[in-house]
Amino acid sequence: MNYSILAGRLVADPDFKNLENGSKIAKATMAVNRRFKDKDGNSVTDFINVVAWNKTAEFISNYFKKGKPIEIVGELHIRSYDDSNGIRRKAAEVQIWDARFTLNDKNGQKVEDPPLPRDEDAPPDSFGSEISFDEDDVPF
Fold first, then answer.
1. How many domains does one find in the chain?
2. Element (H, E) at 95
3. Can you tell me the distance from the alpha carbon of 118 to that of 97, in angstroms, rounded to the nearest whole number?
4. What is the pLDDT of residues 27-53, one digit of tens each?
5. Rounded distance between C-alpha atoms, residue 131 and residue 61, angstroms
6. What is the per-residue pLDDT for 121?
7. Share of the chain above pLDDT 90, in %
8. How far is it between the farthest Cα atoms of the chain?
9. Within its chain, how far is the Cα of 123 from the centroid?
10. In angstroms, what CA-CA distances link 48 with 59, 98, 139?
11. Among 9, 19, 73, 74, which residue's beta carbon has the most beta carbons within 10 A?
12. What confidence score (pLDDT) does residue 140 get?
């Protein structure tokens, strides 16, 4: 299973583009602190490239800017390409499925989430809906 969850800050404003085929793309780099500090007690930060498409790309471009905290869920993709010298290179990036605000913004203020992007073909969100059942129906 390929599942990535990251929380960090954007190091620059997202690079948003409308493509000729009608798709939308947003590329960004996230600064994500590692769980543990180095031997000198300093935080270690990874800079991770992330990519979002269509409605998620619009959402990220509209609501997230440089320095803004962000949480994302997606999957890690490794791609290969030839550089300008003909040398085969690899690049890693996380393809974003979902993005949201963290609980607090840069100034420590609680952030209210705007509506999350929804594609027309995505199933309706049932998270948080109440489920009722009769205890006699439970098989254990």
1. 1
2. strand 88-100
3. 11
4. 999 999 998 888 898 889 999 999 999
5. 35
6. 45
7. 64
8. 69
9. 20
10. 19, 16, 46
11. 74
12. 47
